[in-house]
Amino acid sequence: MKRGEPCKECGKPSIARGLCSVHYCRWHRHGDVNAVRKQRPRCSVQGCDKPNFGKGLCNMHYSRQRKNGTTEISGTAPGEARDFYETTVKVFTGDECLLWPFSTKGPEYRTGKGYPQLHIDGKLHAVHRLVCEMANGVAPSDIHQAAHSCGNSICVNPRHLRWATPVENMADTIAHGTRAAMGVYQRSKRPYKPRAHQNRAVIRSDGTMFSSIGEAASATGCNRSGISSACTGQRKRAGGFSWRYAEGT
Q1: Model pTM?
Q2: What confidence tens digit (pLDDT) does each residue in 131-143 have?
Q3: Domains plus CATH for the chain?
C-alpha cells in the first residue's frame, strides 16, 4: 500500500504498512493497532481522583506528606489570619507587644523575625503598614516606613507603630540593637582559638625555623594562608621561599 492512502483502521492518510501515524505507533510499540494506553493509578487518598505521582499519592498529597508528614492540610486554615487581623489587631488597646502568629516575609522569615503578611482580596499586604495606616493615617510620602518603637518586627500593636523616614527607621534599629551602627562590628562572644596546624613550627627553604605560621607571617610579611598552602603542597612558594612543617610538630 502506498503512503498517503487511507488507513485500514480509521481512514486517515497512512504513513507505513497501510496505517496512519496513531495506529502505526501502536503497532510498533505494542504489536497491536488497537492497544490502548494503560491508565495511571489514582491517588490513594479517599475522595481524590488525581493521577498517581509517587508512593500512591498525587502531586499535592505527596508534597504534603513529604513536607508535613501527613496528607491532611496543616498550618494556617484559610481565613484564620484575616479573622485575627479583624477581630484582634484592629481592636487591641494594650501596651505590650501583639505578636503576629502567622506567616512573615523578609530576609529573616525562617527565624520568625520577618514582617507580618496577609492576603486580602488576592493581594499580599504588609500587616504592620496596614496597622500603622489605621492608627496614624496614610503615609506622609512614598518613602515613609512603618517603624516599630518596640524594635520587634512581628509586633502589630497600633501603639508601637508610627511613620518614619528610612533614616529615622535606621536610627531606631541601631538604638534597639537589631542592627550594628555603620563602621561598628560586633565581635563574636566565642574567644579566638587558632587551628591546630597554625601552631605547628615551620621551616623556610633557607633553613630559618619559626615556631608558628603566625610568627613566620609577621617576620617575613607573607600571607598566613600562602605559607600554609606552601606547607601542604597546594602551592610551590610563598614570599619567594618554599616552606614545610617541622617534623614532630
Answers
A1: 0.47
A2: 999 999 999 999 9
A3: 80-176 (3.90.75), 196-245 (1.10.10.10)
